[in-house]
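Entry 14. Ran structure prediction on the chain below.
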Amino acid sequence: MSPEAQTLYAEIAQILEYPDAHYGERVKNVGHLLEGRGNQMKEGIARFSAFVSLAKCNALEELYVQTFDVQSICCLDVGYVMFGEDYRRGQFMAQLKMLENKHGIDCGSELPDFLPNILRLMPALKYEECAMLIEKIVGPAMDKMLQGFATDGNVFREPLAVLREIIREDYGQ
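Output, structure tokens:
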């Protein structure tokens, strides 16, 4: 993975996490990193960036929680999206945790299958390993995540949809 792609995945990981004081800057950085990518991606991030720049911090935080946490539209735990509470999620998380530890990825207080943690892991994997992870788990999970936004109009759909297009472009998945 190129250094530019690594930076892009790392920045998207940060905008899929709980907003902080630097959130707007990170969203703008993603917009800059999308130069040379498709117009649809740049337009999606531009819409998201416009919303973020006008939103008050506490309103953005509240929307994030409503979107991803409490009775959420979308769960960012990839293993849960794919397997629910099935034992396969536990196996998947154990494998992820082993890889994240091996490559020095700090999951913080989140689970190993939290999408931003997986995005941080991806650049450390060999292309083939990453492509398989995307084909079997991440891509299908993201498709399910995006279905939750089908009728909602929630602005947090934008970074997820852009990420899905980036993954399709980078890995053909």
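The radius of gyration is 15 Å. Will compare against last week's run tomorrow.
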